[in-house]
Write a structure and sequence with these properties.
Elements (H helix, E strand, L loop, with lengths): L4 H11 L4 E5 L2 E5 L4 H21 L2 E3 L3 E3 L6 E2 L3 E4 L5 E3 L2 E3 L5 E5 L5 H12 L6 E6 L4 E9 L2 E9 L3 E4 L5 E4 L7
Parallel strand pairs: 4-8, 9-10
Antiparallel strand pairs: 1-2, 3-6, 4-5, 6-9, 7-8, 10-11, 11-12, 13-14
Protein name: Putative restriction endonuclease domain-containing protein
Organism: Nonomuraea glycinis
Pfam family, one: Uma2
Length: about 180
């Protein structure tokens, strides 16, 4: 008998708690920890977001599952920004519509999931902003204005071009400073 995906997902999370475990279209994906380049890009993002996050009392979580619905996939972005007292589905999962920004740095082999699969799961769950930093294509992509069928707005900029996070952020990102590796 084949166990449901949710049960297998929990088992894998228990076996490998130090690794990021996600579910994409019914397949369980266990991701290694990031490379030094991946982590350096994340550090650059953190340096730029921290002043706004600290000023507004928000929090940045580096390893939390995004709850997209009872029968939906389970994604773990590289960074999740949440307001004070976000709505949690469980100790390990925050509701998508209770986030302020999700950030992923594309890793080798993960481009399709980050650029296509995740936005299609995040938008119907009400994730307001999803930022994808792609060091391989040297671009940043911001998904905003979520709807039932996906995001209605995608802003794509080459590294070095200005990108401003919309409300509630109203904060510019120095995209050239993100890929200094």
């Amino acid at each position: 008998m084949i166990r449901p995906v949710e049960e297998r997902y929990r088992t894998v999370r228990e076996l490998f708690p130090e690794l990021r475990t996600e579910v994409f279209n019914g397949r369980i994906v266990v991701n290694d920890t990031g490379t030094w380049q991946h982590n350096t890009i994340l550090a650059q993002v953190l340096f730029q977001l921290m002043p706004v996050v600290a000023e507004r009392g928000w929090e940045i979580w580096p390893n939390i599952t995004i709850f997209l619905g009872a029968e939906a996939d389970r994604y773990v972005p590289d960074l999740t920004v949440v307001p004070q007292r976000p709505v949690m589905e469980s100790d390990e999962a925050v509701r998508g519509d209770s986030t302020l920004l999700l950030v992923d740095v594309v890793a080798a082999g993960g481009a399709y999931d980050d650029h296509v699969v995740k936005p299609l799961g995040y938008a119907p769950a009400g994730v307001p902003l999803y930022l994808v930093i792609d060091p391989f294509q040297r671009l940043v992509k911001l998904y905003s204005e979520p709807g039932r069928d996906g995001y209605t707005r995608e802003t794509v900029e080459p590294v070095g071009a200005p990108l401003t996070l919309p409300a509630p952020w109203d904060h510019p990102l120095d995209t050239g400073g993100l890929l200094c590796v």
